[in-house]
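User: Hand in any protein.

Assistant:
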Amino acid sequence: MIDLHNHILPGVDDGAADVSVAIGMAKMAVEEGTTDFACTPHILPGLYHNRGDLIKCAVAELQQVLLREGILLNLVAGADVHLVPDLVAGLREGRLLTLADSRYVLIEVPHHVYPSRLVDELFNLTMAGYVPILTHPERLAWINTHYAEIRRLFDGGVWMQITAASLLGKFGRRAQYWSERMLDEGRVHILASDAHDLAKRPVNLRAGRDAAALRLGEEEAEHMVSTRPRGILANVLPSALPKALAIVGGEGSNETGHSNGGLESISATAHARRRGTVGSAPFDHTVGRLRRFFG
C-alpha cells in the first residue's frame, strides 16, 4: 500500500511530536503492509510556516533515521497545502509542494466555513496543469449544504481523498456517512491515513482499505491504496489511471465513475457563483476563460 497523506515529519506541525513518534508511526505503517509514505505536513501561513525546501530536507533526514533503524519505508515529499493566495505561483516557485514533484497536489480547505473562492482556485490549478486532490471532504462541516459543489469539482477533474478513520467511524457518524456515500457514488479516488500520532490518530490504512473492500470489492480498494497512488508518484496522467467505481447512482453522479464536465464544468460553476446562482454557464464564457488562461 501507499499512504499519500500523513503527518509523520517530527516537530513541524500538529503531527508527530518528535523522532520517536515518527519512528513508531513508520513501524506501524510497515507492519500493516505500507511500502511508501508521502510526508505531507501542513503549509498554512500564520500557523505552520513550512516551505518546500525545508520539507524536502526534513524528509531526507527522517529517511536516514529509518534506514538506521532498519525500517524499510520509502519516504517522498509532499504537503497538505491549505487554500492560500497564489497557489500556482507557490507551486511553481517551490514554496508549496506537489506529491513527489508530480502534477498532483493535496489541497486542504477551511473546515467550518465554505470558501467562496474554492471553485476559482481549483480551476486555476487545473488550468495550470496540476491535479488538485481535495483532502478529507467527508469531514468538512459544510458538506451537508454544499455537496453539490463537491460533485461539480469531482466532475471537473478534481480528485477526492477520504480518510481511512472516517470509514471506521473514528470521526463520528456524519463523517462516516459521507465517506460511505462518496464511496458508493464513485466519488473517491484515494484512501489515506492522515495519521498524526501513535494513539489518537494512528496509521490505520489497512483497516480503512478493508472497510472499503467490503463496500466496493477488493479491486477498487486496491486501486485506492495502491494503483492510483503509485500512478500519482509516477506522475501518470489521470486519464491513464482507473476511474473511480460507483455502485449506486447519486444526484448528478455517473454510474461508471467517468468524469463528465472536465474543465468546462469547473468553469461553469465558477461563473455561476459570481452571478449568485449555481448552474451551467454559456459555452462562449467557458471558451473565453480557457483562452484567457492559455493565451
Summary: Strands lie at 2-3, 36-39, 42-43, 74-77, 80-82, 104-108, 131-135, 159-163, 190-192. The two ends are 41 Å apart (CA to CA). The chain has eleven helices and nine strands. The chain has one domain: 2-260.
